[in-house]
Design goal:
about 210 residues; alpha/beta; D-Maltodextrin-Binding Protein, domain 2; 2 domains; 6-stranded mixed β-sheet; 5-stranded mixed β-sheet; 9 helices; 11 strands; about 35% helix; binds adenosine-5'-triphosphate; binds magnesium ion
Length: about 210
C-alpha cells in the first residue's frame, strides 16, 4: 500500500492533475466527504487528508509514504527524515513582511527599535530578522495574522501573500519579500528504498506533469 498525505483546499485541488498523470484518481472529494482516508482507483494507493502543517510529520514517521507540503510548512518543520525530490510548482505565493499602511517600517528598522512580529512562521521570521540584524519579539499566532497590527498586538506580521487583496482590505502593506513559496513533493526516505518499484514511477509521472 502507498499512502499519500494531502491537505484539503488548494493543495488537494492542484495535486489532482499530477495524480491523474500518474494514473491515480481519488474516488471521493474531501470537501464533501468526512472521511480522512480516501480510496483511489488503484487498490494499492490511498490518500489521507491532514492539516497542511501536519503533512511533513506524517511522512517523516512513515505514516504516509508521500505527501505534498508548502515550502513555508517545510521550512518550519525543518525537513528531518524527508526526501524532497520535486518542486511541484503549485500553490505559489510569497512569504512577506507586512505592516499597517501608516507604519514607517524603514525608520523603525533604521532606529534599531525592537520590532514586535506576529506570525505562524516563527522559525522563518526568526531566521529572516536575524540575518538582517533586526531585533524582534516574536508572537506566535495560528491564523488571521492580518489582524495583529490593526489591534496593536504587533508592529509587523510575516505571512503568505498571493494577490495582496487581503492586505489591502485590512489597510496593510507588504514591506519585505522573504521567499517565493510553492509546494514540494516529500517522500519518506525508508519508503523510497523499500517501496521503490511502486514509488519511482509515480515520481517520474509527477516530474513530467509539472507545469513550469
Ligand atoms: P490550515 O487552514 O489547516 O490552518 P493553512 O491555512 O496553512 O492550514 P492553506 O491555507 O490551505 O492551509 O494553505 C496550504 C498551503 O498552501 C500553505 O502551506 C502554502 O504553502 C500555500 N498557500 C497558502 N496561502 C496561499 C495563497 N494565498 N496562495 C497560494 N498558496 C498559498
Ligand atoms: Mg488557511
Amino acid at each position: 500500500m502507498i499512502t499519500i498525505a494531502l491537505s484539503k483546499g488548494r493543495i488537494f485541488e492542484e495535486t489532482l492533475p499530477l495524480l491523474d498523470a500518474a494514473g491515480i484518481a481519488a474516488l471521493e472529494d474531501p470537501e464533501s466527504s468526512r472521511k480522512l482516508i480516501l480510496p483511489t482507483n488503484r487498490a494499492d494507493v490511498r490518500l489521507i487528508i491532514v492539516r497542511a502543517s501536519d503533512v511533513p510529520t506524517y511522512v517523516q514517521y512513515g505514516a504516509a509514504d508521500l505527501g505534498v507540503a508548502g515550502k513555508d510548512v517545510l521550512n518550519e518543520h525543518g525537513g528531518t527524515g524527508l526526501y524532497q525530490p520535486l518542486d511541484l510548482n503549485i500553490a505559489r505565493c510569497r512569504m512577506m513582511v507586512a505592516v499597517r499602511k501608516d507604519f514607517d517600517y524603514d525608520s523603525a528598522v533604521r532606529q534599531g527599535a525592537r520590532l514586535r512580529v506576529a506570525t505562524k512562521y516563527v522559525q522563518t521570521a526568526r531566521a529572516h530578522f536575524a540575518a538582517k540584524g533586526v531585533h524582534v519579539d516574536l508572537i506566535k499566532l495560528y491564523g488571521s495574522m492580518e489582524l495583529a497590527p490593526l489591534v496593536g498586538l504587533s508592529d509587523a506580521i510575516v505571512d503568505l501573500v498571493s494577490s495582496g487583496n487581503t492586505l489591502k482590505a485590512n489597510n496593510l502593506k507588504a514591506v519585505e519579500h522573504i521567499a517565493d513559496i510553492s509546494s514540494r513533493l516529500v517522500v519518506n526516505q525508508a519508503a523510497l528504498k523499500l517501496k521503490h518499484a511502486a514509488i519511482q514511477p509515480m515520481l517520474d509521472a509527477f516530474a513530467l506533469a509539472i507545469k513550469k
